Amino acid sequence: MKVGFIGLGIMGSGMAGNILKAGFPLTVYNRTRGKAEPFEKLGARVVNTPEEVARQSDVVLSIVTDAPDVEQILYGEHGIVKAEKKGLIFVDMSTNSPDFALETYSQLKERGIRFLDAPVTGGDKGAKEGTLTIMVGGDEDVFKQVEPVFKAMGKNVIYVGSAGKGQALKLCNQVVIALDMVAVVEALQLSRSMGIEDEKLFSMLSSGAGNSFTVQYYMPKIMKGDLEPGFKSWHLKKDLKYVDDVASKRSIPMPATSLTLQLYSALVANGLGEKGTQSLIKLYDKLVGK
Ligand code: NAP
Fold first, then answer.
1. Do 57 and 82 fall within a single domain?
2. Ligand 1: which of 11, 48, 131, 239 to mutate, most ligand atoms within 8 Å of CB?
3. Any idea of the CA torsion for 253, 255, 256, 261, to the nearest 10 degrees?
4. How do residues 119-148 score in pLDDT, each as one tens digit?
5. Which residues are catalytic?
6. Do 47 and 185 share a structural domain?
């Protein structure tokens, strides 16, 4: 199976690297070409447009940012659909709304392109190490065809159901990781205010019931003052907005998630959108007057 990959950012660079390591012939495109060039040395073909990726591939995976970016690579000038390749499989692995996935599924079906939504969790660490969890929505026969490629990038590949269901499950994950970050940051503020060393809090959480990926991966970054992104704050704000839309449409009250969306909106408004989600600590520092 010839694989195409679009979007070699924090996540995509690790994921594409693992597809190459698994031995799939790979064609890559990144809007900023400089990020694609290292892949040439690793044996990938680097091209200049999404349309060229589609021409060279049986399945095209993308992990860009938001819905308008997926639309850009699909329908923009030199977008994927310009290749008019019937039978092509297109997989969006960005985090997006379930409604957008459903709409994309229908629009591409009319053009003879099969679509899967397959967002991921596991962070930049999981992307590099090939240990992502991947949640897939779409037709099961198409999922079966792409499953070997998913397995090159992830250790837990879950077929959830019809189009949009991968994104739906991913939004549930975003609720948990967002609230966990709030919990870790609030616990840090409380422990610091009582004169407890950060290391003591970390040690206790690590071996107790409060342990989590956020504790293990992001708390040490907060302790070192490292705000660089594994996961950008404005991406989490985007995801929480999608959660809010889905929940309010169904009258599901999610007060804690709504509050967390407001916190991340404030963080972005304070110029920290491009920093990692752990930069929430800076907002709380402001709240306590530091
Ligand atoms: P990132 O580092 O900002 O990378 C985004 C990539 O998308 C870049 O390669 C960028 O190209 C490309 N892109 C954006 N808009 C584009 C457009 N209109 N046309 C073409 N290319 C475009 O972000 P990331 O952290 O890899 O996240 C990517 C997606 O995965 C997001 O939906 C995010 O929510 C999701 N996600 C992230 C994580 C995480 O921990 N980071 C985990 C799970 C899911 P340029 O290089 O030219 O900017």
1. yes
2. 11
3. 100
4. 999 999 999 999 999 999 999 999 999 999
5. 170
6. no
Nearest-angstrom CA–CA distance, 240 and 143: 27
Ligand 1 site, residue 219, Cβ cutoff 6 A: no
> Is the shortest distance between the CB of 133 and ligand 1 below 6 Å?
no
Instruction: For residue 195, give the CATH number of its domain.
Output: 1.10.1040.10
The CATH number given to whatever domain includes residue 106 is 3.40.50.720
Q: What domain count does the chain have?
A: 2
What confidence score (pLDDT) does residue 160 get?
98
Question: pLDDT class for 290, splitting at 50, 70, 90?
Answer: confident
- Ligand 1 pocket: which of 32, 61, 63 to mutate (most atoms <8 Å of CB)? 63
Q: Are residues 15 and 146 in the same domain?
A: yes
Contact 199, 223 (CB under 8 A): yes
Give the residue numbers spanning the domain of 199: 168-287
Are residues 9 and 150 located together in one domain of the fold? yes
Burial class (CB in 10 A: 0-12, 13-18, 19+), 286: exposed
Helices (H) and strands (E) in the chain, counts: 14, 9
For ligand 1, atom 43: residue with the closest CA: 121
C-alpha 285 – ligand 1 centre gap (Å): 28
Whether 78 and 219 map to the same domain: the answer is no
